[in-house]
Automatic annotation (TrEMBL):
InterPro entries, sorted: 6-PGluconate_DH-like_C_sf, 6PGD_dom2, G3P_DH_NAD-dep, G3P_DH_NAD-dep_C, G3P_DH_NAD-dep_N, NAD(P)-bd_dom_sf
Catalytic residues in the record: 174 (proton acceptor)
Lineage: Bacteria, Bacillati, Bacillota, Bacilli, Bacillales
Main location: cytoplasm
Biological role stated in the UniProt entry: Catalyzes the reduction of the glycolytic intermediate dihydroxyacetone phosphate (DHAP) to sn-glycerol 3-phosphate (G3P), the key precursor for phospholipid synthesis.
Claim: Nucleotide-binding is one of the keywords in the record: yes
Organism expressing this protein natively: Paenibacillus lignilyticus
Family statement: Belongs to the NAD-dependent glycerol-3-phosphate dehydrogenase family.
Catalytic reaction annotation: sn-glycerol 3-phosphate + NAD(+) = dihydroxyacetone phosphate + NADH + H(+); sn-glycerol 3-phosphate + NADP(+) = dihydroxyacetone phosphate + NADPH + H(+)
Binding site for sn-glycerol 3-phosphate: 89, 119, 121, 174, 227, 237-239
Subcellular location: Cytoplasm
Protein name in UniProt: Glycerol-3-phosphate dehydrogenase [NAD(P)+]
Pathway membership: Membrane lipid metabolism; glycerophospholipid metabolism
Limits of the Glycerol-3-phosphate dehydrogenase NAD-dependent C-terminal domain: 163-304
Enzyme class of the recorded protein, top EC level: oxidoreductase
Amino acid sequence: AVLADNNYEVALWARSETQVDEINTLHTNSRFLKDAVLPPNITATTEMGTAVTGAEIVLFVAPSSAMRDVAKLAAPYISEDAICIHATKGFESVTYKRMTTVLLEELPISADRLVVLSGPSHAEEVVRKLPTTVVVASANVEAAEKAQDAFITPYFRVYTNKDVIGVEVAGAIKNIIALGAGLTDGLGFGDNAKAALLTRGLAEISRLGNAMGANPLTFAGLAGVGDLVVTCTSKHSRNWRAGSMLAEGLSLDEVLSRMGMVVEGVRTTSAARELAHEYGVEMPITEQLFAVLFQNKSPRSAVESLMGRGRTHETEDLPGV
Ligand SMILES: NC(=O)C1=CN([C@@H]2O[C@H](COP(=O)(O)OP(=O)(O)OC[C@H]3O[C@@H](n4cnc5c(N)ncnc54)[C@H](O)[C@@H]3O)[C@@H](O)[C@H]2O)C=CC1
Ligand SMILES: O=C(CO)COP(=O)(O)O
C-alpha cells in the first residue's frame, strides 16, 4: 500500500485464489487487514511470473520458514538489475541463516542489490497511514537509497543503514523478547518486570548481534529499541499475544492454531539458542523461553530462574562498554 501510494504499479503474489479475487475486486484483504481499503493500483495474482517479470523492485514478505521456497519460485523471473528487498523477521529453520543469506543463495542478484527493511511497523497501522518510521539496510548505499526513495511518504519515514547483520538480528530476536513480555503481562508481573525484560532483552540482542558482526549502534535504532518497544507493548503484536495466551495456560499448539498468523518468535527461540551456543554468548531470556516453549517449564519458574541467576555487572558484557 505504501508503494502504491507512491504511484508504483504493485503486483502482489499470493497462493489463495479467493484472496487474490478479493484484492482485485473489493480492494480489501479482510482476513489480515479487516476493512482497510487498499489502493486501486495494487493487483493480485497467483502467477509468480506475472507478479515478478520486469519488476524494478521485488519485495519479499513471506514468513522466514517459507522464504527459501518463495525465493526459488521467484528466482527465474527476477532480472539482474532488480532491487530485492525483504521485510521478514526471523532466521531459516535448521540452517539458522539470516534472510539475506537465503535470498543471496536463491536469487540471481548480488549483495549490492539486496536490502532489508525493518523497524516498528505493524501493518494494521501502516495501512491506516499512521506515522511510522523504518530502516532500510544494504551493503550498498545506493540500493538502500533506492529503497528509501521507493517507500518514503509523509506518513512512512525511511532511514538508511549499512548494517544488514544488525538490522536482521535485531528484527528477529525482538520477537523472543515480545513472547516473554506477553508472558509476564499475562502473569500480572507488572511494569517493573516488563521494563527489565525489554532492557535485558536488548542486552541479549546486542550480545548476539555483536558476536555475529553487527554495529552495536544499530540496536539503539529503529530496528533495535524501536521494534522491541512496539512488539512488547502493542495490541497488534502476534508475539506478545501468543505469550499472553501461554500465560493463560494454553499449550503452544493451541496458541498457534488460535493465532492463525505467523508467530516468528517461536522458531526464532530455537534458532537464537543454537546461534548463542555457536557464537559462545549468553542469552538467558532465550534459554528460559526455550524451556517454556519446548520443555514444559512453567512461565513462573522461568522467571524465578532468571531472577535467581548468579550476580553480575550490568554493562560489562555489552559491546562498546
Ligand atoms: N504483520 C506485520 O505487521 C509485520 C510483519 N513482519 C514480518 O513479515 C513476515 C510475515 O508476517 P505476516 O505477514 O505478519 O504473517 P501472516 O501470518 O499474517 O501472513 C503470512 C502469509 O504468508 C503466507 N505463507 C505462509 N507459508 C507460505 C509458503 N510456504 N509459501 C508462500 N506463502 C506462504 C500465508 O498464506 C500468509 O498469507 C514475518 O517475518 C513478520 O515478522 C514485519 C513487520 C511487520
Ligand atoms: O515486527 C513487527 C512489528 O514491527 C510485527 O511483530 P508481531 O509479529 O509480533 O506482530
